[in-house]
Amino acid sequence: MTSDIRFLHRENAVFASSPGGMLSLRVDDETYPVVYLHCSFPHSDPERYISVRLPDDKEVGMIRSLSDFGGQTAELLREHIRIRYFAPAILSIKSIREEFGYSFWEAETTAGTCRFTVRSGGGNVKTVTDKKLLITDVSGNRFVIEDIGKLSDREYRLVEMCM
Amino acid sequence: MNLNFPLSERDLQAATGAVGDDIEYCVPSDLSLDGRRTQAYLVIGKEKWACVENGEARDAASIAEAKEYRLVNLVGNAILEAVQADGSGSRIVARVSMQHAPRLAYIARVLNDKANRQPVRIYPNEEERFCIRCGGPLVPGTNTCPKCMNKAAAFRRLARVSWGHRWKLALGLLILVSATGVSLTGPYFQKLLINSALAPPAGVSPDLRMFAFGIAGLAFGLIAGELLAIARGRLMTVVSSRIAADLRRLVFENIQKLPVGFLTSQRAGDLINRINSDTNQIRRLIEEVFTTAIMQTVVLAAVSVLLFVTDWRLALIIVIPAPLVAWLQMAVWRYVLRKLFHKQWRLYDRANSFLLDVLGGIRVVKAFGKEEREIRKFRDYNSQFAAATIQSEKVYSYLAPISHFLIQIGQYFILLVGGYLIRGGELTIGELIQFTGYAAMIYGPLAWFMNLPRFIANAAIAIDRVFTVIDEQPEIYDKDGARRHEIVGAIRFRDVTFGYKSYEPVLKHIDLEVKPGEMIGLVGHSGSGKTTLINLLSRFYDVNEGSITIDGIDIRDIRQEDLRSQIGVVLQETFLFSGTILDNIRYSKPDASLEEVIRAAKIANAHDFIIKLPDGYDTRLDENGGNLSGGERQRLAIARAVLNDPRILILDEATASLDIETESLIQEALARVTKNRTTIAIAHRLSTLRNADRLIVLEKGSIAEVGTHTELMRKRGIYYNLIMAQRNMAKPKSGFRTTAAT
């Protein structure tokens, strides 16, 4: 099987941050003022096989692993992955009220206190790895519980009702 | 949709300092780049924009510095990006969580219009998804905030709908009160029986007349109670079902009047739910209120009074622990059992969907030799489900005896104290029996009342969901002066701009004139606006700007029913209703004669296959014509469309899903039906359009090319490339040159 993946690494690609906070790329002799990073495995392995894409969704190439780049570039790429995949981690759950086919959450997250509504059923609260739980609210915001094993008994019981 | 959020005094000062005194728009920019929720706002002035937070302008620039502003939807958040006019790349203007993403899309459009020195054209009519009062999330699909919900208002509306049945409701109420009264006589007659006949006080001889009276009273209570219960049940079922039927009818009638836009934004399942399960919940509410609720209230009040009148000391023994028992039952159910059952159902669901998966895909499992693996998985699910069942059953097996015991122990104390009082001569045996009879009646209402708030909240939301649809106003309505018009077939689009969400125009400045009887082929990539164009012509939506005229009359001035009945539509996905072939063809003109139906079928090349069917035109179709082939269904749809002799015919991918042979049959039919009719046809397979008088090529919502097939091929533009792409696609597969659009 032939592969037509163009891999980007420190020898052929230079990533930089534009003054306006966007990511730009020079690869071989071409320059792309704006590129976006899409993870192939955003939950299980976000640092490997990252697709670098243009605003019109064409793929420029793939990064096999962030470790193929030096510390500063890798950190820049990490930062942009964090911007694209925004899912505050839930640190503690204040309350979950289930009513009318929706659950109303109030939780302390890495982004601050959040109140959000989750449609019951339909896979809006689902495990994405053995430990990690992904919650998608009615607007499309995403929240994660990094390790459901670390929830208190009370929190686990509340969350379990919505799974 | 709110695009003008109020700013605090400090932020306002910072904003006016950065963009000037005229703040035209102000929306939240609630995420920082490092992922914190913030209280920042993006402020748009006349010439500049700025981001303000905590009384400071964090960032500001001239709007004209960028040549394009675009909203980029990321995962779980969105950013507003500005492409700099000087070619220095792009910059992030603002970042928001998803609830503000639509707002930011409008702002992108505002900024683009301003940057291009054009008048701002936005129509922010999307509804807010947050409570205006408390800022909390609404129950999706309704305008109800679970915190601020006015339950009384919901019930008042229900009362207005129920008003037509008031006399029956009143009669039901009367029967209910009588039934409750009758049920309360039981313990009284028991006391009478015991005190006067079975165990009269010392020195008094048993009274046979009282014995007969007591027995008759008990029998009366029993029989009359049951009879009244039957009458009440029958009456309330009739009334509540009629009220629910009224509501269902109101919802369905209004759904039919609503615009396609509303119907496609609401999932069909959700609407079916509103018609069926929500109205059903309301029916249960009415039944419950007029049977159980009122009865429980009367019983609770009457029994409490009777208990205290009989003996206040014994009454206290009952009344004090009773709420405790009721609460215990409710608490165990709510905090323990419900969760356990929930877990059990979830595991059951998982095992069930696993079964569906594996049995549905059994060929794949066997082909890959994975039977062992699937058996292991099922064993795992099965044992988890069994464990969960055992766990919940265990708790349940404790709960019933314990609560029974607690009720019994109350009775035990009554016997204890009652026995003591009888010994002291302060109470008779009859009174004690009467007392225990009443005491047993108090637990039911108490437990019921504990569940009442939740029940009322659920019913209130069902009422609200139903009335949300009933109250929804059709966006497309006939003007007062709308008139009838016999269509000739001249169509004109004048500078038409339209977007389903007005911040994302799908069609931009469309100018197009179609002569009567002309056949127009619409060509373009997916998402170029072809279907939108014909949706506008059928007036499923109104244009944002410009106008569409038929024979020189704006379509908004023609009665909708009149307009649509003269436009025939054949879609890719033909929808046939259950019923006979005859019913389906006649759908567009119910009073068509049999001969007209056969003629239409002949025009559509459908007659020959219909006549071969054993039941001919009387053939009953399965759901959506499942017993016909795709080509046959399509020909029925064409017959249905032409039966009414429409002056304008719309063909939306009418032959896309058919094989070549069937397509040629349909092509032949279409060639006949499009003759002398204004026809607008959309097709990906360009061969369908070879008969078109003119081809219109749409590209990103604008008309890119117009001409005949030969003219456009010579031009070597978008159309030429599409033709070439289709030829190349057809080559390796079939091995011969495609006949497409030659």
Q: What share of the residues of chain B lie within helices?
A: 40-55%
Give the structural class of chain B. Answer: alpha+beta
Note the main sheet of chain A.
4 strands, mixed
Under CATH, the homologous superfamily of the largest domain in chain B reads: ABC transporter type 1, transmembrane domain
Helical residues, percent of chain A = 10-25%
Beta-strand percent range of chain B: 5-15%
Number of strands of chain B: 19
Rounded to the nearest angstrom, the radius of gyration of chain B is 37 Å
CATH topology type of the largest domain in chain B: ABC transporter transmembrane region fold
Q: Name the structural class of chain A.
A: mainly beta
Q: How many distinct domains of chain A?
A: 2
How many DSSP helices of chain A?
A: 2
Which stretches of chain B of 5+ consecutive residues score pLDDT under 50?
Answer: 733-742
Gross morphology of chain A = elongated
Count of helix runs of chain B: 22
The helix/strand order of chain A is EEEEEEEHEEEEEEH
Number of strands of chain A: 13
Whole-Å distance between the termini of chain A?
41 Å
Largest sheet: spatial strand order of chain B? 13-16-17-10-18-19
Concise account of the structure shown:
The complex is a heterodimer of chains A (163) and B (742). Chain A is mainly beta.
